[in-house]
Amino acid sequence: MSDLTDGYLNMQLLRFTTAGSVDDGKSTLIGRLLYDSKAIFEDQLEAIERASERAGAEEVNLALLTDGLRAEREQGITIDVAYRYFATPKRKFIIADTPGHVQYTRNMVTGASTANAAVILVDARHGVLEQTIRHAYIASLLRIPHLIVCVNKMDLVGFSEKVFEDIQTQFNKLTGKLDIHDVRFVPISAKYGDNVVDRSERMPWYNGPTLMYLLETIHIGSDYNHTLQRFPVQYVIRPQSDKYHDFRGYAGRIASGFFKPGDPVKVLPSGLTSHVKTIEIMDKKLDVAFSPQSVLMTLEDDIDISRGDMIVGENKAPQTGDEIDLMLCWLNETPMRLGGKYHLKHTTNDLRCMITDMAYKIDINTLDHICDDKTLGLNEIARVRIKTTKSLFYDSYRLNRITGSLILIDEATNNTVGAGMII
Asked: Taking the model in full, what pTM does it have?
């Protein structure tokens, strides 16, 4: 049993998000993935069978596995982000099922922010729509490395190869405008399971992999930045005991890169240098640690370090400054205030900032820049400049999704109002 447990714990984890227009079948697809991969319990299946019967459905509605809110079940739509966890013999998965409605753009940004891959559904009858463009843009903005375009409801177009190829052509024209490099296409029928887990016999013209095979085998090892050493300090460990009288350690999660005992490092913002002495997890000393491990690190020299400081590689320091340009997605009903002051959280750093300028707003459906409108409301995205009360050490979001991201918080309500990707 311990061997089985160790094997499970050491399996690679893939986080992926689903996106698509309303009624494209995102929740049904996830239900089919869970059902065909034997990842749901009998009592869950019985519950959705009873719910499907009450709703008068002729078949089991697999979307009910993820649509957990009553309003979602009653309206047949997805409103909130639903997370589901399952595993196959090859990999563990965390799925974020995100809404398709334009008014829930912020929910998609939330669900996609940590994803390795995005599964974008396109209805075979309708092709690429404005909402498809919006979802592809957000996936590009959030630097999701892999895109899997599932052309769904192929059963409603007679499993036509031409329909599938036309949608491929439409989508490839779109990705030419975006920073997306790895795009795969799969023709599926989520309702009946064609090319989801098992290969479809009704589309013999398709020789590519099924969706499940792609999810199990897509290479994600290079998705993480292994060259930039970044360790934001979350907590300073100073035990008040005789046994550890002089001990001083720094706890936190490695944002990127590898750290080994003996590595030369620099501490920001002081700029003082030292070498890594030890790295530990639960009293176990490590020869090497890497992102996203949470570790305890000690240094050879006694340096004044506190929460919010960052330990970095000596030769590849992050950018430092108090005026920062970023793409900002607004998450709150109250519009952004140009010149407004907000609380800012970046890695383990807490400070205040002011929004000093707004260069342009993105028309999410056409990707055009709107320069004459300086207002930013719920679910809208714009390029803005902020000025912080003290210097921030950061990387561009393109290089590092951890040190390149931040959130803005309303000081009066304590609500998170903005999610930023540093340019």
From this structure: 0.82
